[in-house]
Amino acid sequence: MEVTRKMRIAIILLTLLVSESVLADIYKFVDSDGRVYYTDEPRHSLYKRIIQTKIQSSYPRYSKYNALNVHSYSGGNKKKYLDLINEVAYRHQVDAKLVHAVIQTESAYNSNAVSSAGAVGLMQLMPDTARRFGVTNRNDPDQNVEGGTRYLRHLIDMFNPNLDLAVAAYNAGENAVIKYNNSIPPYPETQNYVKQVLALYNKQKFQY
């Protein structure tokens, strides 16, 4: 984030104090060399607002991610949603193996999963994310996978070519990644989440 050290400290303190209802605009700037910059505090008029979203709290949304999800998922549930996941991933040009890795880590293919923070369904959508991507019923597997995959596509485009940051943002929110100067936030859950999702993805654990 393009701020002085004092401003950065002030923003961190403010983030700890404000409620999740406060809005933060995110801006994008591409320089003459093609380098892309993101910030929530544009320094000149060439920055273009790309989204208006809610500030994430200082901690991630606490998905259903845990060792049980990774190692003890229901193969029957995976088979049940396989065609849906692959079709939606193909339509939005997201590698289906990545979507499967996210779902395995988030909910272990349990469409009824609900986190302590209120994330719901296969891709553990929060209410704000659901509204943002047109999901009216988070409990509906079709809508849930559609909204979650669209969000993942958005994050991949936003942090291209760094897939690590896209995955981190799915867990902690894009503002958290931007806040820490386009790096994985120092939240233990998020750091473990990124490792797990990418391990599942890179090892091509899911076969089609």
Walk me through what this model shows.
The chain is mainly alpha-helical and 208 residues long. The chain folds into two domains: 5-54, no CATH class; 67-202, Lysozyme. It has helices at 5-17, 67-71, 75-91, 96-107, 127-132, 141-158, 163-172, 174-179, 188-202; strands at residues 23-30, 36-39, 48-54. The protein is globular and about 50 Å long. It starts with a helix and ends in a 6-residue tail after the last helix. The model is unreliable at 1-23 and 54-59 (pLDDT under 50).
Which helices and strands occur, and which strands form pairs?
Elements: H1 5-17, E1 23-30, E2 36-39, E3 48-54, H2 67-71, H3 75-91, H4 96-107, H5 127-132, H6 141-158, H7 163-172, H8 174-179, H9 188-202
Condensed summary:
With 208 residues, the chain is mainly alpha-helical. The chain has two domains: 5-54, no CATH class; 67-202, Lysozyme (Orthogonal Bundle), CATH 1.10.530.10.
